[in-house]
Amino acid sequence: MVAADNFSSEGENKPKKGAGFRSLTFTLAVAFLALNAVVLLIASIMDIYFGLQAQQEIIAYQQNLIAEDAANKVRDFINGKLDMLYASSTIGELAIASREKQEMSLNRLIGLDDSFRQLALLDENGHELLLASRLSGLVSGSFIEYEKDEMLSSVTRGETYISSVYIDEVTSEPMVVMSVPVKNIFGDMMGVLTSEVNLKFMWDLMASIQIGRNGRAYVVDKLGNLLAFGDIGRVLKGENLIRIQEVNDFVNCDSSVHKSSAEVSKGILGNDVVANHAHLVKPDWAVVVELPVEEAYESVAMEIQFSALAMLISFFLAIIAGTYLSKRITKPVISLRDAAAEIGEGNLDEKIKVKTKNEIGQLASAFNKMTSDLKKSKRELEKYSESLEMKVKKRTKELEQKNEELARFNRLAVGRELRMVELKKKIEELEGKLKNK
User: Fold this and answer.
1) Which end of the chain is more exposed for a tag (fewer CB within 10 A), N or C?
2) For 244-280, how does the pLDDT look when each residue is reduced to its tens digit (9 = 90+)?
């Protein structure tokens, strides 16, 4: 019999759960949950990481398209004005035309495009020959002196010239000076055709660009000065944006090595944004586009939320599955334990009902065989005990009979000795009497 302290005080056959007891069901369930949690966590992290990378590439590509599109519009606008100046210079034969024809060409050109505010024909030394203007005579011609030396230097080399942007004091509109060389049929420089062009078009363009819900677009020059933005007040103040990382990259990097990215940095409004820019090259400006981080990675944030929800649901299902599987795994072991406890109590008729075809099933079969062998041995032992008991009784009876016979013999022997003693006494008495006579 197994000692009583191995079993519950209530007489149950389940072993007591001591202080160091750990349920196998609980252990398996925790192990399953831990493994499931690790797998889910790794899978979610990898999914989020690759999703973030893909989203970053998509954002960079989309922003690059928007910036390039805006840059192309500004570039086309600038190139269109230069082409018109070249066409007027060449077709109008300004180098050899009479003053009347020259004046007619300039007036026709300024009438064709409202963005031309003033046009001037200069000689090779920069002296004014002819002026066509939409302004009054008091302010006409003042643009000719703007960066005049630099303009003449560029045009003399046969290059087009585009000045830095400046704000008109009267109209508060952005202006730029564009100049092209005037050549004769032999290609010799005969003068300069220069113009003052209104760039309010860029303001309207930046205001019309739609970048997500809260995105921003603006134009900066090579010094980082703000040229066009939805908030015109900041443009009029001549704000410099070199502090902004994307603008700083444009100012300090070559356009040939510029790589589209979607890095997070501070934007023009001071918030965290994903920014990109596109070079115009000629002029040396850039269109910068920004999108707030929370909007740019909104899909990733939703994916993270979905992943977190999926993890919670999966974890909940894992708890159910883990508990079910651990119970299914440990149920045969528990049955084996309970049966062993019953057998330990002496109930050899207890059979372990385990139907699993695995090691536990084999153990149960071996246990049942052991129980059967024990039962057989017990029966044989009981038979032997009964046989032995009968033999003991028989021998005991024989011994009792022998003892009785011995007792009778002892009684006879003692009686005989007593009679001999009495006879001896009588003989002695008779002898004594005879001597006295």
Assistant:
1) C
2) 999 998 898 876 556 666 778 899 999 999 888 888 8
